[in-house]
Amino acid sequence: MKFFIFLLLTMITGLASAVEPASSKIPDNLDERIKPCIICHRDADLIDRDAYFPRIAGKPAGYLYNQLRNFRDGRRFYQPMAILLENLSDEYMREIAEYFADQPYTHPEPVVPALSPDETKSVETLMYSGDPERDLPACSACHGEALMGMQPAIPGLLGLPHAYLAAQFGGWRNGGIMRGQIPDCMSEIAKKLTQEEVNALALWLPGLPVSGQPAGADALTPELAQRCRTILSVKEVSR
Q: Cα separation of 16 and 33, whole Å?
């Protein structure tokens, strides 16, 4: 608990430089200000394969910006993030999002998942074909054929730790991540998956090599854009 409090205070102190003038010994720039973020989200040389926190470098700026606003405004719940962001402006969060979006997409080497041939086939079907009988679109229909996300606001699925993927699916299925967002298409989709399918997906994805870029926004069908319109919307920042 003491370490958690120390970590949180360190993060808050770092981002506070957005409001208060920086020390003359420390450059007042975004490279310095985002260092508290890297404590958890890791720099390129500190990648932890089993970390709970996701890597955010290289993800679409619209997605990152939406998540920052969701944490700050209580639509997504994780207390350390909520506290860290509670006094940040939309403009400053947009800067942070664009900064990380421009960074290289760092990731560990893939690990071959411990799945049976039947489990692998089932996961690949969900990933690339979906299941029309359960109204489940293919994961690739939203996250791109390369599974690297889609501009401006859909994240990639590759290079994420197994622990984080499993926790996210659990949160969507139990209503513990997003609050008051209608439609919440990932919650809707996750609840239609079996626990066995969730477990297999969380093991299969970290076994894929990371390559490619987020797909363009025109790759998303109008039907899916309407289904997930809340997630896709990116609030414009008034300048």
A: 8
Measured N-to-C along each axis, helices 162-174 and 195-204 cross at an angle, to the nearest 10 degrees, of 150
Given its phi and psi angles, is residue 135 left (phi above 0), alpha (psi -120 to 50 degrees) or beta? left
- DSSP H or E stretch at residue 222: helix 222-227
Alpha carbon 173 to its chain centroid, in Å, reads: 17
Tokens 């489940």 correspond to 136
* Residue 227: band (very low, low, confident or very high) from pLDDT cuts 50, 70, 90: confident
Question: What is the C-alpha separation between 180 and 138, in angstroms, rounded?
Answer: 25
> Is the dihedral angle over the CA atoms 104, 90, 142, 112 positive or is it negative?
positive
Select the more confidently predicted residue: 8 or 88.
Answer: 88
Q: Which residues are CB-neighbours of 229 under 8 A, at least 6 positions away?
A: 183
Tell me, what's the pLDDT at 180? 52
Q: Alpha-carbon distance 66 to 73, whole Å?
A: 10
* Model confidence at 71: pLDDT above 50: yes
CATH code that applies to domain 2-101: 1.10.760.10
Lookup: tokens for 199: 């477990």
The listed CATH number (3.40.190.10, 3.40.50.720, 3.30.2350.10, 1.10.760.10) that belongs to domain 117-232: 1.10.760.10
pLDDT of residue 204 exceeding 90, the answer is yes
